[in-house]
Please model this.
Amino acid sequence: MLLSATRIRELDGIAVVASATCYLDRWLLGASTTWPGSTRPRELTPPQPPDHEFDDQEGRMPIYYHGGVPGKRRRQTILPATKVKMNAVYNPDHVEKAIYYPDRVYLTTHLGAAMGYAARYIDRRARRSPGDVYQVEPIGTPEVDPDFAAQDGAFVMCREAVIIEVVERNVQLTLREQTRLAGPTILWPRGKPVYTDDGTLQLSDQMRAAGVRDDYVALLPKWIDLTEINSLGEIVSPRNFTKTATARDLLDIFSHLTWDNPTHQIRGAGHAFECVCGQRYDTTNSAAIHQAGEHLVVLQRHNIAARSRDLIDLLAERRPQRWAWLTHTK
Ligand SMILES: [Zn+2]
Model:
């Protein structure tokens, strides 16, 4: 599945993650680690794009940012990987068609994207730790980053860059904070944005072909990262991209939905079931879904664990009295 996903680039003794066209399926299969970022909740103000992103007619230089190696100061130089003798290796198993030049420094006019790269910083020992964001000036004429050719010069590369200002130190962001900040720069192939302005995922052609529909997308968390969901619409395990989410994972990931709304309370009614709202059901399963929340039907289309009894059992564990009717039925 072609999409614009993340990849790792190593620059100036660090690695940053940049967008690349790759196959999501292989990406998910090949990835063995997550980028948890910080779990610390944080209020974020999406950065405003600079007011002159591209060369205007007066020939002004765009404002460029670089997110990556921490601890640099004004007037210091950001060097490409080859100049700091860092092996520019990113995992080729799960990334295809990513074009990377280790003798180039990568810059962007999009501050949010630079923040995301800083948050995904990896040091020489391949450890993830918070990076910094700098405003920089390219040395020499910047060239368009071929991975972002559709983005009109918002992503460029150059031989070296000089730090003009330190914009932010110690950038720690969760994956969803990263997608939110980088928002409009994250594109499906052929340039369609992955997210709407409010962070709702927009279906790729492959997702749509796999039967994923808008009513499901509407239930997803805003700014869900593309490493949290696969091309079939399945939520993947937060611990291992190659496995699907468990019932407990689903209740966690969809915690923004109203589960087990007390407006609905099933009772046995002879051989059937009746809710206090008046709905009647012939089967335990349909009665349980009604009490759990009808959105469960939509989640069940794409998530095995949503179809299992485990999810209902977890709800019953939380509020045993409300679910006591289940234990009296088969
Ligand atoms: Zn009801």
About this structure: The longest helix spans residues 309-318. Residues 264, 275, 277, 279, 290 surround zinc ion (CB under 6 Å). The chain has eleven helices and twelve strands. Confidence is low (pLDDT under 50) at residues 1-56, 90-96.
